[in-house]
């Protein structure tokens, strides 16, 4: 019920942390879901099944190896992998640092490589480094730093 309220009843545009959550929401009529963790090879079959079943199942990538894995495992029936480049803007959990020279090359590789197989949707950053903040000002400072890093990367 909370997810339906959060999406204004559209049942679109949610982010999940686990594939169990993705399956739960898909069973509840959601058809636009982002799996908020870079796809691991051992999760590929589950992600493929969801991508084929839903109108839009989106995944995160943060490495050249992840991109190659998706390119080597195309979706059937004309579907494409919908990909967000996961940036690590200080969380140090997942993602590629936006200042890493490989990050821009990876973004270009996704966007210009084989868009009929893998399509770049955008960039994604998660401010998990706010979890330990003790006040609103600290959260706001991390949000400003993350926003600046993402905007600088996208501009480049």
Automatic annotation (TrEMBL):
Transmembrane parts of this sequence: none
| Segments forming a coiled coil | none
One MF term in the entry's GO annotations: D-serine ammonia-lyase activity
Q: Where's the Alanine racemase N-terminal domain? A: 10-130
Gene3D superfamilies registered for this protein in UniProt? Alanine racemase
* One of the protein's GO biological processes: D-serine catabolic process
Q: Which InterPro entries match?
A: Ala_racemase_N, D-amino_acid_metab_enzyme, PLP-binding_barrel
Which branch of life, at top level? Answer: Eukaryota
Q: Which PANTHER family does this chain map to?
A: D-SERINE DEHYDRATASE, ZGC:162816-RELATED
Name of the protein described by the UniProt record: DSD1 dehydratase
Name its species.
Sylvia atricapilla
